[in-house]
Structure formats: structure tokens, C-alpha cells
Amino acid sequence: MANLKGILAGQDDTVALSKVGQKQANSLTSYLGSIKFEKVFCSPLKRCLQTIDPFMISNPKMKFEFEPRIIEMDYGLWSGRKLATLARDRRWKTVQTKPSAFTFPQGESFKGMRKRVQSVLDDLSTQKGPFLLVTHGDIIKMFIATCLDLPIDRFQSFIAEPASITTISLGNKRNTILQMNYKLTPTDLTGFKANHLGGGNSLKNLKKWWQK
After folding, report:
1. Three-state DSSP class for 92?
2. What is the pTM of this model?
3. Which of 12, 19, 85, 186 has an alpha carbon 20 to 30 Å from 27's alpha carbon atom?
4. H or E element at residue 177
5. Using one digit for the tens of pLDDT, what is the confidence trace for 101-159?
6. Rounded to an integer, what distance in angstroms lies between the CA atom of residue 140 and that of residue 186?
7. Whether 109 contacts 101, CB under 8 Å
């Protein structure tokens, strides 16, 4: 629901999937069912559990674990606020252009988020996969940047929409992004104007928020 309302949900566990989100979660079941995952790791937040719930019901023997390191970023005092309002904050520019230098008020720094993403990758690289991680937009974007050994400031170069699939191959010497922001439902590419916090599929509407 937060994405539809243009709100930065963060670690608010009262945020649940909308009807559209539930439909998207159901559509993932058959697609993901073609892959024999070793284990499913899920953010402890309700909306991620709701996303993977239909798949787990169809695959009751699949190993499952909550992974706190892939919880959404802690946006601190910015959590629950409208992106349109935050975009007018003078600190917004730093978030967009130099996130490595930013810590959310009473929240997490991008350096801290990068560190926990890196620790997950380090662990998974020593285990036999494939694994399915159910997580959040900004976390996915940081996974991509980290896998490609890009600096934190390139993190905003990627987009991860709700119910999208990103596939990464972890290699001994080099990682490869096999698939990124793939959606089972058609995406209106004309709406992609920029990137913003939280991943979100509201890029088309971002311009409207800005104009308010």
C-alpha cells in the first residue's frame, strides 16, 4: 500500500500488500516453481512474507528462514513520510547523488546497509544454491551494486520494482547480473523518469509529486 500512496515505508511492519500486490505475489508462484531453490530467505517484514506466502504454500517442503540482514533500510525519522515531501528536503539531493555520505536521522547509513548486504553475499558465496531472497527495493539495488563491486554512490543507478525478479550469479572471481527488475506483468517503460528511495513502481508518478 505504501508504494501506491508514495510513502517511504521503511521498517514499518504494519504495511501490507495491496490487492495489486497480492495478485502479483500469486503470479510469482508458477514462475518461481520452475527453479529448485535450496532455501528461501525472507525479510522479517510482513509485506515480504505476504509476497512469498503463495509460493511457500505451493512448496511446503521448501526450506525457509527469516533473514534480518535483508530487512528494508532503516529510514529513521523519514519512515512513514511522503516522498513528495521528502523530495523538497535539502538533504534529498545528498541521498540521490552521494548516498555514501548520508545517514537517515535516527536511522541507518547507506554504508551500514552496504555492510549487511555484503555480509549476506559473503555467506551465500560459500554455500550451494540457488537461493531465493525476498527483500526490498533499496536492498536489491544495493545487492546489484555490491555484486558489481560498484561504489555506494552508484546504488541509485538501478531500479527494483515491487514483485520484480533480479537474478545474480555469484562466481569465484566475478559476479554476473543475469536478470534485473524483471516483472511477470508488463511494465510501462515510458514512466521511468528517475529513481527514488524504496525501489517502488511510482516512477511515472514521481514527476506529479514533484509538481505539487
Report:
1. helix
2. 0.85
3. 12
4. strand 176-182
5. 999 999 999 999 999 999 999 999 999 999 999 999 999 999 999 999 999 999 889 99
6. 20
7. no
